[in-house]
């Protein structure tokens, strides 16, 4: 999941995942949300740059 956040500069992949209802994969929506929360925490810890890892 983190690779999506790191490489999806314009948000197009995220929009595609949501538009396709998380591809009906079990618990994928929860993982997607948790990954976003984790990435936002990284961004805060690293001065706001979401792509810094």
UniProtKB/TrEMBL annotation:
Protein name: Uncharacterized protein
Source lineage: Bacteria, Pseudomonadati, Bacteroidota, Flavobacteriia, Flavobacteriales
